[in-house]
Each structure stands twice: as structure tokens, then as C-alpha cells.
Amino acid sequence: MRQAHKVLATYSFTPGGVHAGYTDRRLYVDLTTNTIEERAIEPMVREKFTGGRGYGMYYLWQAVKPATHWNDPENELIFTAGPLTGLTQYPGSGKTHSVTISPETGVPVDNNGGGFFAPFMKFSGFDCIEIQGKAAQDVMLVIDGNKGFVTIETAPDEPTNSYDLPEVLHAMYADGDDDRKNVSVATSGEGADHSLLGLINLSYWDAKRKHTRIKQLARGGPGTVFRDKGLRAVVIHFSGTTPTLNCPVDMEPIKLAGGRMNKEILTLDHTHSRMREIGTGNTVEILDKCDVLPVMNYKFGSDPRTEKIKSDVWLGLISQGMPDGCWLGCSMSCAHGVDNFELLTGPLKGQKVLVDGPEYETIGGLGTNTGSFDPHFVLEANFYCDYYGLDLVAVSTLLAFLMECYENGILTKEITGGLDLHFGSDMDALELIHQIGEGRGFGKVAGLGIHRLKKLFIEEYHADAQFVNDIGMEVKGMEVSEYNCKDSLAQQGGYAMASKGPQHDEAWLIFMDQVKGQLPTFADKAEALSFFPLFRTWFSLMGLCKLPWNDSEPRDNHDRYTGIEAARIPEHVENYLLLYTGMTGHALDLDGLLAQSKRVYDFQRLFNLRMGQGTRKDDWMPYRGMGPVTEEEYLSRQERYDKQLVEAAKVDIAGMSLQQKMAALRQYRESQYRQLQDAVYARRGWDADGVPTLETVKADGIDFPELVDLIEKHTHKA
């Protein structure tokens, strides 16, 4: 198959060159002109933007203009690593970060995914890869980090799906079967060609299974950009990984942090989060009990049928005792899979496959949120989202929205082409996934995503505008991830005020706020919505996974600390400071860590403003995420809602009709959210419209002329 490739461009470089976690080099590729060149990462960029997502945001800013659309050739797709990427001594150190202009939101979107891609990229000699332009035909970018060459090659005969293609490429670019572990590829699939919901799969080789595994860069449609540029794959080959390849300044702090973290996981995980057995799916019944599980398009927070897909069900389906770390040395080993799963539908019907997952988002999204409690449906839908290169979270929330529209008569079988999309219609939901992935039937419409569908349903099908906007769970154009945040004001803010869109990787506060009651005041919520987004941003600068931080904790954490301080897990924070100091040789405290993040966080907010968003109106949560849209929802929690009206809102509900109570509750909850916005913006150093102030960017040290000009123009306009 490789003999059919035509090499369009070749570039030679000096391999390696990592020192103190950095190469200070980036690889630039223009697919329109087949240009490949090596560029320096300027000292100012390293100082101000640190690495990872920060590099991606800065270089994307340089590449695009305010009027740039996601499918313009000048839009870049950037893969980045951080200074801690590739550590083998500390769990969760293999993360790849990507940045591009999102097809769904029109603003920068960042993602992180596990696997070997970013470590191999860095060890080859590059802290990031910038891909610009559009190829005239499908091509692959191939990097050999040992021999020191890069090629752009045509890819005329390769598979078009993300299950078979990685298998082919690992074999094609390895130096024999034993070398397949030294290949990592980025791919997408047909679904990214036909929808705005495309993801990028990052591969790694599972030596025990003799099969490729995949992790995702999923939210906001990066795979759609990938395919629009004509990329079939990005392939990296690198052999020779060692524990010291990052060339740390001092290994002792790294060994100290890694030793105690690995001991903690190996000693406590089986009684704590069970990440090594089940992964993030361990939380299903916990979330159900706490009434925060998304059920039937977030109408409800629990369901008695949840026991059919609780964690012990997945324990029996997930293959146990396998090497389930997605980078070398990760003792958390949460990247599980279900082997020999027989498919009932689609192009691989009747075949037995390896399903990567399921993660919690899979179970809460494809399961309860669509009204399904069938593990087989969840696994099959999980597999085909990966196969077609579709963002599983977006597809889940989209299906839930379409099902509620169907049950309310907005959609009919005539519109859906015969699909019955009631909640729990599993086979029809699978058929719709196939249609989205293959670009046919109603799938061509559904693949536009909720934001555009709301407008279509209102204009074309005469749907009630308020109802559709209330139940369509998207913010900024991105579908909401899988937590029911009705009764957590802090989580509403965490979703809606996130720069890229409503993904919980920025602030997961629902337990602290709703379940444990640790954030009773607006000031408490604002403080949490300052600290946690900044702390979590730091992972994306470093190349780290968040799970070892907050899905494991020392045995004595809650004996030594309480409230927000306990939630920060101070010993883990100390670990990360040790890792950074050992790697770079520069001492770092918590304030310095947060300052690194804040520069990038505020810069991204201003990037949104530059692209036409980034203000208060863009941070609004659909009412389904704030409170009950329907009578059915109100009645399901009537005692709770009545109590809040009386005790918190000071409303006399005697004699009020159900509709009057619902209207009063809505007025109260929307008012509460506006007050939260005020408190959070003030705490973050933003103005009342949600824009970082001149004083803030000066304190950040990013008062570049173009940022100052942007803020001044907005202030004058406002």
C-alpha cells in the first residue's frame, strides 16, 4: 500500500535536542504549498505562554485574523507538548494538546488526549507542530524522529475509518512487528468529513493485545478541521524512549513526587476510585444517588434503571489485568477496553472488535441521557463514534436533544426519514450515528450540531423558539458534557463561562457545590471558579492528565484539610511543583503556577473577543441547565423547588399555580446566575461584560499592543 504513496515534499532535521523539558523548536507545515520548515520558539513565548496549550493559543493568534473561519486555509491545527510531557516517573504525563478555530463555536478550541503522540513529537525534536493550508488531495504528514526527516505523502488507498487506519499505519511505518510500539498516529474518519462534530484519534500500540488503542482530541470539531485540510493521518515514529530523555535539571524532586504518587495509587485505588479496574465509569451510581446524572436530555438526575449500567456491570465487561496505561509508567492505568465485542449494526456488523472505553461520559451520555440502559447499545455506539471520528459527548447530547424534540412533535418520521427517535430507541439511535458518520439521510442535518439545529427547527419546522432554546444544551455552539447541573450554580458557571465551551475539564464543581455544600456564597463560588479553572489550565500547559490529581488522594487528605483546601489536594499540588522544579531547574510555588495559567487563560478570553465572542452574552446557560423547563421536571423535584421558592426566593407560593411557581423559580434562578457572573468576573479581574481589564493584562505581563488595542476598542464600544 505504501508503494502507492507519492512523496510531495521532504524535509531533514536534526533529531532530539530536548533540554529541561523543552526543545524550543516547532515544525511548520503548509499543505497548500507543501512547505515544511523548522521554526524557533521565541524566548518571550516560552516565558509568557509556558508550553502546551499556551503555545497553541499564541501561534494560532499569529496565524489567523478576526474574520478567519474554521475552514479557511489560514486556520491552523496545532499539536503541542509541555515541559512535563513524556515523563515516565509520574502517572498521566503523556498528554497531547491541540488548538484550532472550532467549526462549532468559531473561537479557539483546545483539547487534550492521551497516548504516545506528544511524547514522540517532543523526543523527535519539536514542542509543537503547526499545520496550515489545505492539501489538494488526501495526504499524510510523516515524521521519523530517529532518522530526522519529515515527508508529505499522498494516501490514495488507506482505510477511511479510525479503527482500521491506525492498524495499517502502525504496520506500515514500523521497522518490523516489535517496532509497532514506536509508532503513533493522529487520524479521524468519515464522520469528520460529513459533520461539524469530528474528533482526532491518537493511537498507541497495546503489546499484550497486539492491537492499536486510541485516545481522543474531541470537543468542538478538531477532526473536522483535520479532514478539511486534507489530512488522512499524521504519523510519528520514534524509538529509544528512556526515563531521562526529557533531560531534567534535577531528577531527585521528580523521583520523590513520582514515588509517593505511584505508591498512593497502587495502595489505595482499589478502595477509592477503582480507576485501575473500571476507569471513570466508577462514578455512575454515585452520580445517580446524588441526582446529577443526566437522564433524558438532562430532565432528571437519576433513574431506577441505572443499576443496569452501574460500575459493577462494566467491571464484568472490561478486560481485567491488561496494560491499560496510555503512556509509559502511568500506574493509574484507566484506559480500559472491552475485547471481542460483537457488533450488531453498521459496516462491521457481525465482527468482534476491541472497544476503547467506556468512560463515564460514554455511559452518562450515550446511556442515561438518551434514555438507554443497555450496556450493549452504549458499547456499540461508543465504538462507532470512534470508528467514524465523531465527538462522543457531542453526539450523546445531540441525540438527547433530538429525542426530546421528537417526543414533542417538533420532529416526525417524515422529517427523520423514518427514524423513531423516542428516548430509548437504541437501534434508531445507532442508525442515526451511522447516517452522521456516512453523510446520508437525516444524519447530514443532525451533524450540524445543536446550535444550528435550533435555528433550523425554529425557522423551518416552526418550533417554539423558547422551548427549543431552553432544552438545547449547548453554549457558544458546543454541546454540554454529561453532568446535570440544575442544582449547582457553580457548575453552571463552570460550563457556561469556560472559554472554549461547556466542557467540565475546566471546572468540575458539582460535588463541592451541590452535594457537599462547600460553596454557600457567591464569593465562595467565585473563588472556586477562579482557582480551579486556573489550576486545571496548568495541566494543559505542562502536558499532564488531570485524573491523577483529583481521582486519587492521600489517605489522610481529609484529616489534614477541609473544604476547598481538601479539594485542592495539597500533597498533589506539591508533587506538581516538585516535577516542574526538577524538570526546568526553576523553583515554582502555587502563586507562580496560577500566574502561568492566568496569562494563558486571559489571553484565550481575549482571543474569543477578537473572534467576535468573549463577552457576558456568550456565557449564558440554556435554562434546562438552570432549572425545570417542563411541568414534568418541576413535579419530579417539587418539594425541593417549592422549598427554594419559599426559603431562598422569599416567594409566598400559597395559591400559586404550577406555571406561576415555575415562572417564579425561573426568575429567581436566572437572577442568581447573573449575580454569579458579576462575582466571577470581578474575581477574575474582568469587567462587567466579562472582558479582562487593562490592569489585569498588565499584571499578567501580556499587555501587548494588539491586546491593549482590543480591550480599549471594546471599552469604547461598550
UniProtKB/TrEMBL annotation:
Signal peptide: none annotated. Gene3D superfamilies: Aldehyde Ferredoxin Oxidoreductase Protein, subunit A, domain 2, Aldehyde Ferredoxin Oxidoreductase Protein, subunit A, domain 3, Aldehyde ferredoxin oxidoreductase, N-terminal domain. InterPro entries: Ald_Fedxn_OxRdtase_dom2, Ald_Fedxn_OxRdtase_dom3, Ald_Fedxn_OxRdtase_N, Ald_Fedxn_OxRdtase_N_sf, OxRdtase_Ald_Fedxn_C, Tungsten_al_ferr_oxy-like_C, W-dependent_AOR. Transmembrane segments: none annotated. Pfam families: AFOR_C (PF01314), AFOR_N (PF02730). Residues 22-242 form the Aldehyde ferredoxin oxidoreductase N-terminal domain. It comes from the Bacteria. One of its GO terms (molecular function) is electron transfer activity. Its cofactor is [4Fe-4S] cluster; tungstopterin. Keywords: 4Fe-4S, Iron, Iron-sulfur, Metal-binding, Oxidoreductase. Belongs to the AOR/FOR family. PANTHER family: ALDEHYDE FERREDOXIN OXIDOREDUCTASE, TUNGSTEN-CONTAINING ALDEHYDE FERREDOXIN OXIDOREDUCTASE. This is Aldehyde:ferredoxin oxidoreductase.
